[in-house]
Amino acid sequence: MCNRFFFARRFDDKMKRMSALLRNRELDSLRGASILLVLLGHSVLKTYKLHPLLIPFFDAALGVRMFFVLSGFIITSLLLREKETKGTIDWKNFLLKRFSKLIPSLILLIVIVQVLNRTKAFGCSVRDYLTSLFFVSELFGIQCWPLAHTWSLSVEELFYLTWLPCMIFLTRKSVLRVLGGVVVIAPFVRSYNHLLNSHAEWFQQGLYFSIPWISHLDLIAWGSLGAFYKQSSRLKSYWGISVLLIFGLFATAIPFGEISFLKWLDYLAIPFRSTVQGMTIAFLICFLVSKKQSRRSLRLINSLGYLGTISYSLYLVQQVVIPNPYLTTTQNEWTAARSVFYFLLALGVGVLSFHLIEKPCMAFLRRKCKIPSSELIFSSGTNHR
Q1: 358: closest CA among 287, 310, 315?
Q2: Which of 35, 120, 132 is nearest to 330 (CA)?
Q3: 86, 133, 161, 342: which is deepest, by most CB within 10 A?
Q4: How far, in Å, CA of 317 to CA of 185, rounded?
Q5: Helical residues (DSSP H) of 253-379, grouped into ranges
Q6: How would you class 362 by CB atoms within 10 Å of its CB: exposed for 0-12, middle for 13-18, buried for 19 or more?
Q7: What pLDDT is attached to residue 340?
Q8: Percent of the chain that is helix, strand, coil (3-state, to 5)
Q9: pLDDT in tens, 43-58
Q10: Contact by Cβ (8 Å): 150, 137
Q11: pLDDT tens digits for range 81-128
């Protein structure tokens, strides 16, 4: 009798973990699409003159925005679930889980960049290493291409260090007001930044200028609003709506300034492109996680799901492998064969990094901190840009 109860309990725990994994496939597929856009954008977009209507399919910036919204949705969902079940939020446990998944792979990246910096002369300094490691590169800027993408990690951590107290101490209505304020203010901040930098070249000779981090926060805020909306509403999702949202998302990524009869839209795109994309991605996430997928759609979801699982490792290593595409010298020397080579090399190094570094660290975290497997599965990959 005891053995029967023991095995039944183990089976029940296993089914709960499998259920969490199944619910996460849609999110993994979106992460996979996001990292694919980043890889294609860095290896192809600046190398070849693409038709404006094709550029959204190679838009690294769109991939980063998708990561921001996904991160806001998943982290806020976890916090809401913890507050609903336990009545409070364990902020120490939250920060431990967050940084334990971020730090090991990031330290390895910095070590690799330092080793390669002696031979390839990336131009990385101690200041670049420190700003990357302490997640402040968005505030102070960075001149080292292999670490330049850590600005997105900086944006997320700055957001969550302020977001966590809001979730703990504020009422639901007050939290929603904070998110609404961020969504309203961010477009005006982007307009202000554009006016200040309208005569500056952002990537001249590999030099990166810092953008005030609040101009990106509405993307994470839209994801957080999506989590609140998903919790309080029962959505009836249809593939037609999802397809329409995906079409609208890529339509907003079109460079309107390169199409003569759409140039006037470029002025609206500066402040409001991220706003529209953030809102669209948030609704897309809500619809995808609310629908029982068909066999045909599951094939696409599963094919992108693995990329989503390893997306954080992929995101970190890809700029070490892929040379700076914004430099004129790099563009002149680049060929189609090199694009394919760097793309595949980045995938291979990302796979190795995930299985040798990130995955063992997550397993160690689960054992030592007694974090449920389902929670790690559900939150895995939310730290990516």
Answers
A1: 310
A2: 120
A3: 342
A4: 33
A5: 265-290, 295-309, 311-321, 328-333, 336-353, 359-369, 373-379
A6: buried
A7: 85
A8: 80, 0, 20
A9: 875 556 677 777 888 8
A10: yes
A11: 888 888 888 888 888 888 878 888 899 889 888 888 877 667 788 889
Residue among 364, 367, 357, 362 at smallest CA distance from 379: 362
pTM (2 decimals)? Answer: 0.83
Backbone CA torsion sign across 23, 25, 28, 29? negative
Backbone angles phi, psi at 372, to 5 degrees: -60, 145
- At residue 5 the predicted structure's pLDDT band, cuts being 50, 70 and 90, is very low
Per-position DSSP letters for 303-337, written without gaps between them: HHHHHHHTHHHHHHHHHHHS--TTSHHHHHH--HH
Q: At residue 199, what is the residue type? A: H
SS3 string, 204-255, reads HHHCCCCCCHHHHHHHHHHHHHHHHHHHHCCCCCCHHHHHHHHHHHHHHCCC
> Can you tell me the mean pLDDT for 337-361?
88
Average pLDDT of the segment spanning 142-167:
88
* Block residue for tokens 């954008």: 41
Which residues lie closer than 8 Å to 18 by C-beta, 6 or more apart? Answer: none
Residue 344 CB neighbours (<10 A): 13
Enter the tokens of residue 140: 């102070």
Query: Which burial class, exposed, middle or buried, applies to 186 when counting CB atoms under 10 A from its CB (0-12, 13-18, 19+)?
Result: buried
Residue 240 buriedness (CB in 10 A; 0-12 / 13-18 / 19+):
exposed
Phi and psi, residue 322, nearest 5°: -90, 120
- Three-state DSSP class for residue 47: coil
Tell me the pLDDT tens digit for each residue of 189-238: 887 777 666 545 544 444 444 456 677 888 999 999 999 988 776 655 55
Give the residue extent of every domain in the chain: 24-379
Angle at the Cα of 335 from the Cα atoms of 333 and 338, rounded to 5 degrees: 100
Location of structure tokens 């916090």: 79
Note the pLDDT of residue 202: 47
Tokens representing 196 are 């200040």
